Amino acid sequence: MTKTTTMLTVAGIAVGGLVAYAIYFDYKRRTDANFRKQLRKDKKRVAKSQASSEVSASASGVDVDELKHALETVKQEEVPTTPEEKEKYFMAQVGMGEQLCAKGPTFNLPAALCFYRALRVYPSPVELIVIYERTVPPPVFQIVMQLTNMDVKERVEGYYDCFPPKVMNVAVKAIEVPVKGQLNTSTRKKTLVCTKDFEAGELIYKEEAIVTALDSDLQGKGTHCNHCLRSLDPSSAVRPESDRLDSAYCSTECLDKAKIHSQSLLFSLDSPLPAPLAPTILPAAREARDKAQQAFADYLKKRGRAAPQLVARFIARQVSAETAKMIPGSVRGAEPVLTDGGDYTLYDHLERLRYLEMTPPEEETQILREVLQHALPGLEQFVTEERHATYLGGMSYNAFGVYFGEGRDDKPEPTMRPEDIEKSRTPLGTQKQVGTGFYAVSSYLNHSCIPSARPSFDGGTAELHLIANRPLKAGDELTVAYVDVTQKEGESIKEARRRRRMELVRGWRLPCTCERCVQESDGSDEGPAKDESKVSDVVKRAEGM
């Protein structure tokens, strides 16, 4: 793995999980003169030690087994949790590292371990690696990169040993999918398989949504909970004092969860941070935040699409999860348990999923950045155009439609072109849903027109229940229908096949190669020759895809 690849991989894995601390660190750098002075002083001392070093940069001279042992030792050490503690820890490790560098090549490994410890708590790993490359003696820098490579490799390769949790009775497996019209050619995709036998109609697993978005035509009516999407009586709905979306909730519990996860940051003037971390908001800043939120709410209503809201809520939930870690013992905003061990964040789950290549409207990116900036200055730097496009493509490709019973019949008919209609994975059709949810595990369910399982929301909320459609053996692939695959009254087999395949192309740029489509084919297929969804280059390189 080259140095450039390493930096990209570290950025992809780490930057999403340290958003809140990055805000704090950035704020300190911009406002605290002593902090900036100390950081510059440390950089200069490291640079000075580099000039005095006469060690060759051709090799680190450290045995691989010794590096592995050292890495495991560092990983067992406790990492500070609060911003203040992380700041002190960072400064102490950098200072110790430069002192060890000055002692000569015998101390290269201990020095590198200090710099590596500092890297573990720094909010922008790529930035710090660039600083190290300029200031740390080459042999020491090389060891730091070797440690980083080993850690990243272990995290990438070990991810699917931890995910999904074994209690869910499923595992992720790589399969080969045939490419339409190309004999003996296939593309590699991840899918879910069951790890035990199931009978038809049996529950395979339950999964809570990480984020949800109520359909735009239901927003503000008070007929559904804005958090769990449960149907409710408007007269008994729980409503917050301040909310840009006129949200309603089925209970104070859902209201509190919504505030903590995303609502306080995106759609109200409440502090998005817990009390111990909440800054004092000046009237001018409060007014600017109010204006930015209103612009975002107006934009969401105008667009009427779920994906932009899911993206914003996902970012907000990351912030919530990270700020929770800063308060020892706090469960406020804690991340859902999606792995059996392993230090993985919400971003780790999203970055491994397939996504559609999309270009969000420039207005959308700017409005979202302004909402984040006025809520927590510095957070807007997290939403680059590239990252926003990837997030939007990920939500668009993986989101499920939430429906109850046989679905609704009162959703307004779309007026835009068929290819512009937003789709979600809904076996009854997107018109039947009340809202949309993003699910980390269920995102790995591939489509089939003869699905082996189906999503159900019989619990009356956005919690997804995966139900077996037929008897399944351990190791069988789990598939669901992304669209309505039933043959309608008066519809021929050819017409039904063409309808569902056109929906798949429009919603997911996906040419279905399932057994049913192959059997019903008359050789006149339309659409793309292969699945046009993407996997990030970093993940492809790391997983050998």
Protein model, in words:
The structure is a single chain. With 545 residues, the chain is an alpha+beta fold. The protein has helices at 3-14, 19-31, 33-52, 64-76, 83-101, 108-121, 125-135, 138-162, 252-266, 283-303, 307-325, 346-351, 362-375, 385-398, 493-508, 515-520, 537-543; strands at residues 170-178, 186-194, 203-207, 211-214, 400-402, 435-438, 446-447, 453-456, 464-468, 477-480. A four-stranded mixed β-sheet has the order 1-2-10-7, with no helix packed on it. A three-stranded antiparallel β-sheet has the order 3-9-8, with no helix packed on it. Strands 4-6-5 form a three-stranded antiparallel β-sheet, covered by helices on one side. Strand 8 (453-456) and strand 9 form a beta hairpin. Helix 1 crosses helix 8 (138-162), helix 6 crosses helix 8 (138-162) and helix 11 crosses helix 14. The relative contact order is 0.12.
